[in-house]
Amino acid sequence: MRARGVIAAGLAVALSGCNRVQTMLDPAADESRSIDHIWRLMLEVCGFMYLLVLLGLAWALWRARHRLAGDTAPRTAASPAEPKISHTLAGWTGLIVLGLVVLTTGSFLVDRSLARAAAPAVSVKVTANQWWWAIEYQDAADPSQGFVTANELHLPVGKPVEIQLASNDVIHSFWVPNLHGKMDLIPGRSNLIRITPRREGLFRGQCAEFCGLQHAKMALQVVVESTQAYDAWKARQIQPAAMPAAGDAAAGAQAFANSGCVLCHAIRGTDAGGTTAPDLTHLASRNTIAAGALPRNQGTLAAWITDPQRFKPGVNMPAVPLSNAQRAQVVAYLESLS
Ligand code: CUA
Known about the structure:
Elements: H1 2-18, H2 30-70, H3 81-115, E1 122-129, E2 132-138, E3 147-150, E4 152-156, E5 161-167, E6 172-174, E7 183-185, E8 191-195, E9 201-206, E10 219-225, H4 227-238, H5 247-258, H6 261-264, E11 288-289, E12 294-295, H7 298-306, H8 308-311, H9 324-335
Parallel strand pairs: 1-5, 4-10
Antiparallel strand pairs: 1-2, 2-3, 5-8, 6-7, 9-10, 11-12
Bound molecules: dinuclear copper ion.
């Protein structure tokens, strides 16, 4: 039974790699396509060279056996094979130089294309924390159009996006393989990554630098959508949270405001203004909670609030002391924050 469980788990992991939400082999942005081109060029050139080496080796082995079997006479210094070998070596050297020139030129061209900067249509600041992502949409021309969210990045398809990367604690790495290569987020320093997504879809990003206990559960959802869908999403996100009028959600808003939650989390439009944990203003518009560790629904929210350490051992969020009734009300409130 245990072996069957292990095989099933292995299959699930293998299949999750095939659903193409987190793979550099299915590029969905200009930058990842450039990287894909150089990757394929390197694979082809190096694969061709490797094949030639193996063919040479096979030929040498075959020739040595053949000679052992048929020709035991000692060779003289004036062997006719030597000029042939020096020609072969010269040809081989030429081929290696040619291969290196092709790879160097390809790398240079890809590097230039990645460095080419189009004026960004969207500016976002992503700040890494142990173990979640703070996401701040910025609008220099009209700061009222800026807003904060967490763990889910929305990008309009076909528009150049500039993402500023920072860290609040240790070094992390921003990596959404379908869109671009890796870029580190370093405390005290700001890095820039530019992405022009070309295909709509849901992609998975993953912190790619070991950053502590829950490094593996530091995921980022990236939604690339049409400009209309993005604008509608943005218009909703800019709004402060709606205050529920009555029922469990209203009681939950009260319980939330009176609990320790407000010391770390922010909900715009309420007194909750903490910045050391994810902004919850529109939590119910997101697919996951706990930086991709769990899907978002009533059950997972209740379980997470009851005992976060069970799902992410070492996480900074403590278990919140709430009665069962209060917890259900807080969950109803959080689920109303769409
Ligand atoms: Cu953050 Cu690994």
